[in-house]
Every structure is written in structure tokens, then in C-alpha cells.
Write a structure and sequence with these properties.
Layout lengths: L6 E2 L6 E3 L2 E2 L7 E2 L8 E5 L2 E5 L13 E6 L2 E6 L2 E5 L13 E2 L7 E4 L5 E4 L13 E2 L6 E5 L5 E5 L12 E6 L2 E6 L2 E5 L13 E2 L6 E5 L5 E5 L4 E4 L1
Antiparallel strand pairs: 1-2, 2-3, 4-5, 5-6, 7-8, 8-9, 10-11, 11-12, 13-14, 14-15, 16-17, 17-18, 19-20, 20-21, 21-22
């Protein structure tokens, strides 16, 4: 049985393989299996992880458990958040108000002062700055919101990738990111430069060279990577 073929039931209480329930057991809640074939579950004893045979990985119980990413899983133990490894061993000693999921061996966390920053696989922060918000890394770049209220992109050393700041910002997708200034939403390149002059009420990332955008007149159109209108939808 390949863990990738195991599905979560419609009511999220058990697992299904080949159209049939497995383990002969239901839970209060289950989440899907992740890498290495491990899944978060919750029953009357608490939240924990199981393997594809339904065996628990460890005896500890938590308030909530989440999937394994980069061999680390985020857990909530009575409002203390941290990460455990696949043997159920706590990875670092610090606790947070919230922890995200590791992406590209880096994870965003929120400390007791409601400040965000990133940590490495061992729980060490690798830059000194604190942010109002910090998102996941994708292709070595993450979005952060600084104390001045502006969003910027940082690299996987915690350095700004350019000197541009925005009112809102998205991750890079196929070399372009969504950004917002006082006039509206648009797309930028990795130098932070706008790729066209128009501004929109809302936009989506480019999908194979084209993006869906909404004008301030609530008209939805398709634009290309030069900002030229391609189609009205």
C-alpha cells in the first residue's frame, strides 16, 4: 500500500485505500499522509502521528499535530508550539505562540511578542530582524512585513533581495510576484520593478504566461507578461 494512494474520508475521521476504510478505526480528526507515510490524527487521548499500518510513532499526546515537512512536524502542546522529528523527539527547546511548516529547510514562527522570523532545521534563527509577519520560503525567497508596515522580499540568508517595498506582496511564481502600491495591484520582477504600468483591483500570479486580473470597474480580463490585454472573461 503506497501512502500516496491513501485518502482522507469525506468527514475527516478515517482513511480510505482502494475505496475501503483501513485500520478498522475512526478518529476525531485525521489529516492526509505526508512524506515517509506519516499522518497526523486525533482521538480521545489527544493528537499524535501514525504510520501507514496505523501504529502510533510515539506515546506523547498534543493538542494538535500537523504533517511532516522536511522531516519536521509542527505540534501544539497546550498553546506551546514547536517541532518534533519522525521519532517524536522535540527538535529544539524553544516554544512559540505559533509555528508554520518547514519549507526548503526553513520555517516561519511567531514568538511571545507576536513577532515573526525564520528558523533553520535545528531551531536556530539565522537573521536578527523581527517582522510583523513572515511567510514561507519558495525558491529561496520569502515575503515579510516590516515594522514600518511595508512588505519586502528576503533571501534565504535574511537579506532583502532589492530595495523596493510595497503595501502588499506575494511570493515569486515563474519569475514574477504580485505586488500592491497606493494605486493598486500589479506584477513585479525579481529586481522589484513593475513589468507594466497598469494597476488593478486584484490579480492572480501568471499561469503559463497569462494572468487573470480584475479592473477597478470589476471587469475580469486576461493579461500577458507585458501587461497587454489578451481576453475578457
Amino acid at each position: 500500500m503506497n501512502w500516496k494512494d491513501i485518502q482522507v474520508s469525506d468527514d475527516s475521521t478515517h482513511f480510505i485505500f482502494d475505496g475501503k476504510p483501513i485500520f478498522d478505526k475512526t478518529f476525531i480528526e485525521v489529516l492526509k499522509f505526508h512524506s515517509q507515510g506519516l499522518a497526523p490524527v486525533k482521538d480521545i487521548s489527544g493528537a499524535y502521528h501514525i504510520d501507514t499500518s496505523g501504529n502510533e510513532l510515539y506515546s506523547n499526546r498534543y493538542s494538535r499535530t500537523f504533517g511532516f515537512y522536511c522531516n519536521r512536524a509542527s505540534v501544539n502542546d497546550d498553546n506551546r508550539w514547536f517541532h518534533i522529528d519522525e521519532k517524536g523527539v522535540r527538535v529544539y527547546t524553544s516554544s512559540y505562540l505559533w509555528t508554520g511548516n518547514y519549507q526548503e529547510n526553513i520555517c516561519t514562527v511567531r514568538n511571545a511578542d507576536n513577532q515573526y522570523f525564520h528558523i533553520d532545521l535545528c531551531g536556530n534563527r539565522f537573521y536578527a530582524d523581527n517582522y510583523v509577519y513572515a511567510g514561507d520560503y519558495k525558491d529561496g525567497i520569502a515575503c515579510v512585513k516590516s515594522q514600518d508596515g511595508f512588505y519586502r522580499h528576503i533571501d534565504n540568508k535574511g537579506k532583502f533581495i532589492n530595495n523596493k517595498s510595497f503595501l502588499d506582496l506575494g511570493i515569486f511564481h515563474k519569475n514574477f510576484a504580485t505586488a500592491k502600491d497606493k494605486n493598486g495591484w500589479f506584477h513585479i520582477d525579481k529586481q522589484g520593478n513593475e513589468v507594466y504600468k497598469n494597476r488593478y483591483l486584484s490579480i492572480e500570479p501568471f499561469y503559463n504566461g497569462f494572468a487573470l486580473v480584475t479592473t477597478f470597474e470589476n471587469e475580469k480580463i486576461i493579461i500577458d507578461e507585458k501587461g497587454l490585454k489578451n481576453l475578457t472573461v
